[in-house]
Design a protein that fits this description.
disordered C terminus; globular; 43% strand; mainly beta
Length: 151
């Protein structure tokens, strides 16, 4: 039996419609700091994505619910998820941790590889096009699709 892979997150946010925080924002944001345990993302073989801060579960997302219910996009060192359950939509954003931005991007890409075993993940390059290129020459986001067989 394979072990679950774990990725450290710098920040994790969940959009909560109708609720605003102290700054008037509808996002509930969790950060790792000295007084709080680290935030981790893990994908378990049974097909669930778990977000944990220490022993507390911040979120559990079923990955086998189908691509109509779950959309995932990678942009640099961030993953954005849109989950629709029973007609209700939730948005989630997580920023990966690393000793440098390049390492954080590598960690995010590693998590995307694992996620693609369950569903397609859109990737968006956040590098701006050169100034001398007209907008028609800018490529559209690449969508990577994992090939797998369900038995």
């Amino acid at each position: 039996m394979a072990t679950n892979q774990v990725w450290r997150l710098k920040r994790y946010g969940r959009f909560v419609p109708g609720i605003k925080d102290k700054r008037g924002q509808p996002w509930k944001v969790f950060k790792t700091n000295d007084s709080k345990p680290e935030i981790v993302l893990t994908i378990v073989e049974s097909g669930y994505l778990l977000i944990l801060q220490g022993q507390e579960s911040l979120d559990t997302i079923p990955l086998l619910c189908g691509s109509d219910s779950l959309k995932v996009q990678q942009k640099s060192d961030n993953l954005m998820l849109q989950v629709t359950v029973k007609g209700e939509s939730r948005m989630i954003r997580m920023q990966f941790d690393g000793s440098s931005r390049a390492e954080a991007i590598k960690e995010c890409s590693s998590a995307v590889e694992k996620l693609m075993e369950y569903l397609p993940v859109a990737t968006q390059d956040d590098t701006p096009p050169p100034h001398n290129h007209p907008p028609t020459e800018v490529s559209a986001p690449v969508i990577q699709v994992a090939n797998f067989t369900v038995h």
